UniProtKB/TrEMBL annotation:
Gene3D superfamilies in alphabetical order: NAD(P)-binding Rossmann-like Domain (3.40.50.720)
The protein's name: SDR family oxidoreductase
SUPFAM superfamilies in the record: NAD(P)-binding Rossmann-fold domains (SSF51735)
Molecular function GO labels: oxidoreductase activity
Annotated CDD domains: SDR_c
Source organism per UniProt: Nocardioides acrostichi
Family per record: Belongs to the short-chain dehydrogenases/reductases (SDR) family.
Pfam short name (any one): adh_short
Length: 221
């Protein structure tokens, strides 16, 4: 196993919007950005965009619906680089079902993807994390103000916020911290809720000193 000199950011559930913006923000700080998407064909253009800007980046495929694959992919990144300094968990699932239509299997499937697979991801990353490493999670106002038209999303976001607090309590003993940045607004192409300023807020949340650390940081634009 080789150890990459640069710190490593792994984005699970990367995309051309927020995931890429977060990767770019961390790359500006000297991180190697690893972008994990559903297929390599999806990941390669994202990594290529960063490489074209002069940053170090690579893309990998991951099936976020398969906990075993999540574990294998995260472990593979750790073994390849010898470290995972920041694990960014970005996935969620929008299902247009109100509470009178949503079934229990649908709810559980959505929560498993939007919150549950954070568990195997962190468990696989832990051997490659050291003092100062961070777990970063994309939160949402849906945790507090759910949209009835997509009832499972609010449950996903409330669940992952709660899970982050538990993870932070366990990881803190090793000076590894977890934080959910709750985006209290609708994502947009421009303005304070566009990817770039949100990515800046995520960097700020991770770059905080551990003194006075909180596992929940609201972003209000």
């Amino acid at each position: 196993m080789n150890t990459t000199e640069s710190p490593v950011l792994l984005v699970l559930g990367a995309g051309p919007g927020l995931g890429l913006a977060v990767a770019r923000r961390f790359a500006r700080e000297g991180y190697l950005a690893v972008l994990a998407t559903r297929t390599e064909a999806d990941a390669e253009p994202l990594a290529a965009a960063l490489v074209a800007e002069g940053f170090a980046a690579e893309g990998v495929a991951v099936d976020l619906a398969d906990p075993a694959d999540v574990s294998a992919v995260v472990r593979g990144v750790g073994e390849r680089h010898g470290r995972i300094d920041v694990l960014h968990f970005n996935p969620s699932f929008w299902r247009e079902r109100n509470p009178l239509e949503l079934t229990v299997p649908e709810l559980l499937e959505d929560v498993a993807l939007g919150a549950g697979v954070l568990l195997p991801a962190v468990q696989a990353a832990r051997p490659f994390q050291s003092s100062g490493s961070r777990v970063l999670v994309t939160g949402s106002m849906a945790a507090d103000e759910p949209n009835p038209a997509a009832a499972s999303l609010g449950v996903q976001k409330a669940a992952v916020r709660n899970l982050v607090a538990s993870l932070d309590g366990v990881l803190a003993d090793d000076d590894i911290r977890a934080v959910a940045v709750q985006i209290n607004g609708a994502l947009a192409k421009e303005g304070p809720f566009s990817p770039t300023p949100i990515a800046d807020a995520m960097w700020a949340a991770v770059a905080r000193d551990a003194d006075g650390w909180t596992a929940h940081v609201p972003y209000d634009g």
